[in-house]
Amino acid sequence: MSAVIIARHARTPAERFKDAAWVAFVALLLGIPMVGLTTVDEGGALTVQTRFGMLAIFVGVSFAGRFIFRWIMDQVRGRRAAKSAVAKADRTPLAIRVIGWAVLGASVALPIMFSENRYVIDTATTVLIYVMLGWGLNVVVGLAGLLDLGYVAFYAVGAYTYALLFSHFGWTFWEALPVAGAMAATFGILLGYPILRLRGDYLAIVTLGFGEIIRVILVNWTELSNGPNGIGSIPRPTLFGLPFERNPAEGTQSFATFFGLDFSGMHRIIFLYYLILVLALLTNVFVSRLRKLPVGRAWEALREDEIACKAMGMNVTNVKLSAFAIGAMLGGFAGVFFAARQGFISPESFTFTESATILAIVVLGGMGSQLGVVLAALVLVLLPELGRNFSEYRMLMFGTAMVLIMVWKPSGLLASREPTIRLNKAAATGGEA
Amino acid sequence: MMLHMEGVHAHYGHIHALRGIDVEVQVGEIVTLIGANGAGKSTLMMSLFGKPGASRGRIVFDGEDITRVPSHLISRRGIAIVPEGRRIFQRMTVLENLLMGTAFADPANFNADIKRVYAMFPILEERAAQRAGTLSGGEQQMLAIGRALMSRPKLLLLDEPSLGLAPIYIKRIFQIIRELNTEHGMTVLLVEQNAHHALRVAHRGYVLQHGEIVLAGTGQELLASPEVRAAYLEGGH
Question: Which of A24, A222, B45, B162 is 20 to 30 A off residue A205, Cα-Cα?
Answer without folding.
Answer: A222
